[in-house]
Write a structure and sequence with these properties.
The structure is a single chain. By secondary structure, the chain is an alpha+beta fold. The chain is built from two helices and four strands; from the N terminus they run αββαββ. The protein has helices at residues 37-40, 80-129, and strands at 43-47, 53-57, 143-149, 155-161. Strands 1-2 form a two-stranded antiparallel sheet. A two-stranded antiparallel sheet has the order 3-4. A hairpin with a 5-residue loop joins strand 3 (143-149) and strand 4 (155-161).
Length: 162
Amino acid sequence: MSTPLPYHPPGERVPDPLTSDPYGPVQQPLSGAVELAAERGPVVYVPGAHGGFVAVRREDLPTVHTHTPAPAPVVSGVDPHAQRMAAKGVFAAGAGVGAYFAAGAAAIVLDSLAQALIAAAVAAGVAIAAPGRRGGGGDTYVTHHHVSNRWFGRSHTTIRNR
């Protein structure tokens, strides 16, 4: 209970607020006289002027026949929502396949580039390590040793430079 009890002097009996007083006045209904449901008929609750709902007898309501619109024609064919869903799925599959092929092409390009860089490095290393080809000048001598073996262990050697 949210309200305090009134003051009572000590020793006087305090009434219990939870039990009803059988000798007190009978409380009347808050909305008016008691009306049985069988006497009044079916009731419909309609929105009231101040935001609440008001009980109104069904026979007291105005009867206005409203025009019911004809049902919308049924469209034959595939559902547009299903078409959009299918198009999204096809697009996602196409994007996935395209990304797969693009990644494969990028791998081939990078592999070819790596092989070209390795070949260039090997060629540069061979060019640096090759003797006698630096500076572009100088003569090249080829020496031929010709050894002829004769009878009884005799050998003859000829050296030619070209």
